[in-house]
Every structure is written in structure tokens, then in C-alpha cells.
Amino acid sequence: MVAEQPADSNSNQENMDVLSSTRTVIKTALEKLGYPEEVYSLLKEPLRMMTVRIPVRMDDGNVKVFTGYRAQHNDAVGPTKGGIRFHPKVTENEIKALAIWMSLKAGIVDLPYGGAKGGIVCDPREMSFRELEGLSRGYVRAVSQIVGPTKDIPAPDVFTNSQIMAWMMDEYSRIDEFNSPGFITGKPIVLGGSHGRETATAKGVTIVLKEAANKKGLNVKDARVIVQGFGNAGSYLSKFLHDSGAKVVGISDAYGALYDPKGLDIDYLLDRRDSFGTVTKLFNNTITNKELLEQECDILVPAAVENQITKENANNIKASIVVEAANGPTTMEATKILTDRGILLVPDVLASAGGVTVSYFEWVQNNQGYYWSEQEIDQKLNEIMIKSFNTIYNTAKTRRVDMRLSAYMVGVRKMAEASRFRGWV
Ligand code: GLU
């Protein structure tokens, strides 16, 4: 039960920037694809945004009221899908941008979903198990009318894990008076979770990272990799890369970073990390997250939070490949700088789509009541990620656009088409 983990904090202003830059890329993608302005008007905002207040009786006997959100971007293709994050810095604009990104991911890996995202402003690192359970159940009660296995299917995200999904599924099943495993994905295996879901984001990142390395004539076995973030994606990714013979020279958590050009002892670090992905506190010789990004390496994987590679540090990145395992780690200006410098950028909406892909497998298995083997999941995930990478890589080449715009063009098309067929625009 590993929770995803953020690195540095992000402000409201940054979240507004994240939303407005996402809109700018969507607008350009739709223009390139020849869609009229009205399609952009529909897709620039989530169709639905719910704000809820969740009272929880805390361990000290007092009631604390938490704020939560659920954004549903577009359900023309099918029910909406996306994780729920628990984080003190969650804002409405961040959740909106994240919901739009989920739509793009679903489009890229061709799932029958639109995008959604949820969030609760809280710090789970400072809450007890009992308080977290109360908050998780309270959130489900608050949003229960707009979610459901055929409406909107939540999943884990930053600082949420399979235990939280289990409580949420149980609460929804009570409200629904029916066992509803397909209400939420990322559940423990015994409650209808899927093999391979826990490691899916990292596996997806590993697959596209290998494809990107091939294109650059780089052998992953000889590559030096820096992974920023040691949460669900970052920790498993470090392990997979280490096991494939790559040299993981840098890792980080929310409190600091470790860098060693000779390669880090990943198994030791994995063993010592806590469930929030914290490990650097055990060391004295740490550097900052900011410093880590500028260290020598061949491949850089930001696997933490938004706005890490900006116009301030993009020129100092040493890697020849940047694979975005986190959502929104690179700003628009930085995307241009990296692209102009010939760095191959594998954008978030492609690189991190492995999680939602296996969530889709989980939901299909729940609907069928028939469960697949881990090999079957791996093989299907592999096919989908390789195909999606190549579609986006080739579109970037043929349409002469950067990898992010290419990913948006591929990701937005199905949703735009479906909205038109439904007669919405
Ligand atoms: N939170 C993950 C993401 O950002 C997974 C979402 C899902 O599985 O629905 O892609």
C-alpha cells in the first residue's frame, strides 16, 4: 500500500498557470486538427465541478471540516475516470487541470472514458488511520450522487492508496446497497483489485522510457537515470530501472535528494522508505530537489508534482531524455527550451498513462467478474504503451510539432469527435 508522493509545494498562482497553459495547448491542438472554436469552448473547462465540505470527528474530540473537490471534464466518450489526491496544497484550478489531463490520457491510450479528478485539502501525514477513514468515507458520501461505476470512477493519486480505495468502495457499496467493486479502482486484490495496478504507472513509464532511449540510440543498461520523487511511481520505477541494469544516480522525496554518480543502492532505499515515500531524512549528505534536476545524467524522470522544470532551470538540465512520470512537471516555456535543445520529452499525458490503463483493466474485470493473470495485464499494458508512444512520436515528426502538442492532438481527438457526434458542438 504505497501512497504517491509529492516533492515541493505549489502555489495558487502556479496552479492557475497549469490550467491556463493546458488550455493553450488544447486550443492549439484543436486548431491544428481543424476543429472550430466552439469545441475549444466546450473542452477548456470541466463539464462539472463539485465542491464539498466534509466534517470529521478528529481523535482529540473536535470536529474538523475539510474541503474536497471532484471535477468531471468530459463524458462524451464514456464515464469519467481519475484519481483522488489528499494534499494540503490542493486547489480547485489544480483539480480542473488534472481532470483535463485525465481526458487526454484516456484519449492517448484509447480507453472508453473521459477524465475526472478529485482532491481533499488535508495533510494525511498528520492524520491517524481512524481520521483518514472518516475523511475517505465522508468524501464518498458527499460526492455519491455524481460518481458511480457507470458515471465516474475514482482511483488513487498523490497520498492515497489501496486502503483508502477500500474504505471508499465499502462506503459506496453501503450507500448503493450493493457490492460495487467497479465504483473505484486501485483496490486491494482481495476486494477486486487487479494484479499489476500498484506498479502500473511505473511499468508504463519504464516501457515508454525504453522506447525513447531506443529512438536516441541509448541503451537503458548503460544509462544514468535521475528519478525525482520516491512515491508510488518513483519508487517502483527506480526498482524496475535498477533491475534492468540502468544506473539510478539520483532520487528524492519531499524533503531532499540523494545523488551519487556511481549509482545508488536502490534496494536499500526502498527498504528504508516510509509509506509516504520519505527516505532522505535518514541521510546527512542530501541536496535539494532543485539541485537534483540539474545533476549529470542521461535520462531525467520527474515523478513528483507540478512545475519542477521551468524557464529558470530548463537550460541547465543535462539529460538527453526527460520522461514525465508526474502530472505537469514541466512548464510551457520549459517545454519549448527542452525541445529547442534537442531533448526528447515524453509528456506526462503519455508517460503516466499506465496507471489509468490498468485501472481500466481492473474495472473491466470487476464488470465481468472474471479476473486476469499478471502476465496478461503486463502484455496488454506493454502493447498499449508502445503503440501510444509511437503514434505520438510519429505525429510529432510528421506534423512538425513538439511531443507535448503531439500528445494533446492525439489525446483530444476522440473526445472532440464524440462530443460532435452527440450533437454537443
Ligand atoms: N491518479 C492516476 C493518474 O493520474 C490514476 C488514475 C486512474 O487510475 O484512474 O493517472
From TrEMBL:
Domain Glutamate/phenylalanine/leucine/valine/L-tryptophan dehydrogenase C-terminal: 194-423
CDD domains: NAD_bind_1_Glu_DH (cd01076)
Protein family: Belongs to the Glu/Leu/Phe/Val dehydrogenases family.
Organism per entry: Oceanobacillus caeni
Pfam families for this protein: ELFV_dehydrog, ELFV_dehydrog_N
InterPro entries for the chain: Aminoacid_DH-like_N_sf, Glu/Leu/Phe/Val/Trp_DH, Glu/Leu/Phe/Val/Trp_DH_C, Glu/Leu/Phe/Val/Trp_DH_dimer, Glu/Leu/Phe/Val_DH_AS, Glu_DH, NAD(P)-bd_dom_sf, NAD_bind_Glu_DH
Keywords: Oxidoreductase
Name of the protein this chain belongs to: Glutamate dehydrogenase
Lineage: Bacteria, Bacillati, Bacillota, Bacilli, Bacillales
